[in-house]
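Feature request, filed as a ticket because there's no other form

It would be nice if the structure record came with a short human-readable summary line next to the tokens. Right now we just get the raw output. Example of a typical job, pasted below so the devs can see what we mean:
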Amino acid sequence: MHRNLIRIIGLMMFAFISVLFFSCASSPAPVPQDASAQKIIQLAQERYDAYDLNGASYYYQVLLDRYGGDPNYMLNAKYEMAFIEYKKGHKDKAVAAFKEIVARYDSPDASSLSQTWKVLSEKMIAELTSAQ
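Raw output as currently delivered:
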């Protein structure tokens, strides 16, 4: 009886430690308040490279929240978030997000924007809508 109790307690401790370890490993680290936009993009890319799409999306949202006033960082974040939606299999959300990016280039200040995000978004829209 005493041996069974020790085994049960040991299994419960193992389960508790496993849950604690895996739950901590899956959440992205907080972003320091003084982190540059480039640092946040690097953190997002590291999460993406580790196949943590939710973590990458979290960092791109931080980029959008902190540096969204800069149109090029805003478009970078929105493009990457749209691409993550595509990778998650949310095709309709991805197409809508890519179209929103392309529409941004209709604004009066569009000539000052990097064409990268427009070109990439148009390619993704073409790819995703031709498959229908």
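Something like this underneath would help us a lot:
The helical segments are 2-26, 37-49, 53-67, 71-87, 91-104, 116-130.
The chain is about 75% helix and 0% strand.
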